[in-house]
Specification:
The protein has a nine-stranded mixed sheet with strand order 6-5-4-3-7-1-8-11-10. It has a two-stranded antiparallel ribbon with strand order 2-9. The radius of gyration is 20 Å and the shape is globular. It folds into two domains: about 35 residues, no CATH class; about 190 residues, Dihydrofolate Reductase, subunit A, CATH 3.40.430. The protein contains nine helices and eleven strands.
Length: about 280
């Protein structure tokens, strides 16, 4: 495939051809583009490729009513019966984590589930996985497993940094950074978050948040890619937690649309992979 960097694109081919070397382009191009999509997004737009990942039931519920369950991720649960998806799907999540520079969640997920957010694929990484928490008012519990295991790999992005709380986290090796111009609700603006991560040279980030963070990501327009896991179960009910909460889009015409859909099977579970925006041209 041609180099997606607009400052380089085509020059390598031209130099080779100028030296009398035959260049064949386009073989396995789709596969090559999939391997390079994070670099392509970053080098063209200076912001990371953002993947929104979630596991849910067939009716779009990511958890039973609050207080009845934790998560499908093993590190967040002590009971197999509370996992949404099966072992094969959960193993694949680790492969996705391995592909990303960072994982991002909301502080509500940390308070509810006490996750570690680690890459347990066992594969070597090009850089340590950055764990990011969106935390408007620094509610992150110092006793959480994230804080207890922080080794300059935990970044808290806040809207309002109360000095005492900030110093407490800094002493424990947590990086705390304030995002300017919060949303009207007082949350970090996710478009500004994406710009901030781009300045840190983070090329890819996977959101593993709850219903409110999922909605905020979709509403802000930062999502490039979706990876949604489904289990053949139906929870039903009005108090079960939906994939995305918030106000929702007012019309079908306004809804987020996924393109280039692929379906993956993981035992009895399946996943839908699709793109909201093309990493190569932003459309």
């Amino acid at each position: 495939m041609q180099d997606p960097n607009p400052q380089v694109s085509g020059k390598g081919f031209a130099r080779l051809r100028g030296a009398g070397i035959e260049v064949v382009a386009g073989l396995f191009q789709d596969e090559a583009k999939a391997l390079n999509e994070a670099f392509a997004k970053y080098i063209r737009h200076k912001t990371p490729l953002v993947t929104l990942k979630a596991a849910m039931t067939l009716d779009g519920k990511i958890a039973p009513p609050p207080g009845n369950s934790r998560s499908d991720v093993p590190e967040m649960s002590t009971s197999r019966t509370s996992w949404i998806t099966g072992e094969a799907a959960r193993a694949h999540v680790q492969a996705l984590r391995h592909q990303n520079d960072a994982i991002m969640v909301g502080v509500g997920t940390v308070i509810q589930d006490d996750p570690l957010l680690t890459d347990r694929s066992g594969l070597p990484r090009r850089r340590p996985l950055l764990r990011i928490v969106l935390d408007s008012r620094l509610r992150l519990p110092p006793e959480s497993r994230l804080v207890q295991t922080a080794q300059d790999d935990l970044l808290v992005l806040c809207s309002f940094a109360e000095e005492k709380r900030k110093k407490q986290l800094l002493r424990r090796g947590v990086r705390v950074e304030q995002i300017p111009k919060p949303t009207p609700e007082g949350h970090p603006d996710l478009a500004a978050v994406a710009d901030h991560l781009g300045k840190m040279e983070i090329t890819s980030v996977m959101i593993e948040g709850g219903a409110m963070v999922n909605w905020a990501a979709l509403a802000s327009g930062i999502v490039d890619k979706l990876f949604l896991y489904y289990t053949p179960r139906i929870l039903g009910g009005t108090t079960s937690v939906p994939f995305a909460a918030g106000t929702g889009f007012p019309r079908i015409a306004d809804a987020t649309r996924a393109k280039s859909i692929r379906v993956h099977r993981f035992g009895e579970d399946f996943a839908v992979e699709g793109y909201v925006k093309d990493p190569y041209d932003g459309s």
